[in-house]
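for the writeup, i need someone to sanity check this before i put it in the appendix. the sequnce is what the collaborator sent (i think, or maybe the updated version? ugh). structure was predicted straight from it, no edits. if anything looks off just tell me and ill rerun, i have time this weekend
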Amino acid sequence: MMRSPAKRISLLALVAVIALVPACSKDEPPTPAPQQVTPAPTPAPEARQPVEPLTAGEWEEADSGEDTSFLSADEINNRQLLRTIFFDHDKSEIRGDQRATLQANADWLREHPNVRILIEGHCDERGTREYNQALGSRRAEAARDYLVSLGIGTGRIEIVSYGEENPVVMGDGEQFWSQNRRGEFVAVSSERGTN
């Protein structure tokens, strides 16, 4: 039996459709769900470590015997000849373990009567801005009063509070906060002039 070309094309089309139907109905493996990529944690900013207070013996050992009487205020600060003290949380009282540092600062200032200083009071980030400003002021006052009790004249000492505004390290937790609760001693002038 002879088929017409149109029937032959229809028949071929039907065979092609029948051949494709099973291929279309096959189960294809499911497309895997996109995997969530957890970004690597951002490393904390590099912590600037404050200078640990020296004991009286270590202080004397660190003193090279070099004549520092004519250093500028910038040189005194760069060489960290006056040391930082630290405070307990929410306190402005001088800690027992910080008295040797204050004594060493007073001894150095007595040997360098031409140097005037600024005591900066600092706090950690906890508490309101206003509260920390007041607490920083009390800390600077306590450090000043201690130096005065050791014979340093009040006319050589200025104070300022920065509250929580100038942390030495960034981060949450006592390891960071304890380093930010501090009193820093900054030379503001020496015999060579104000810097």
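The helical segments are 5-25, 56-62, 73-78, 99-111, 129-149, 174-180. The longest strand covers residues 182-190.
thx in advance!!
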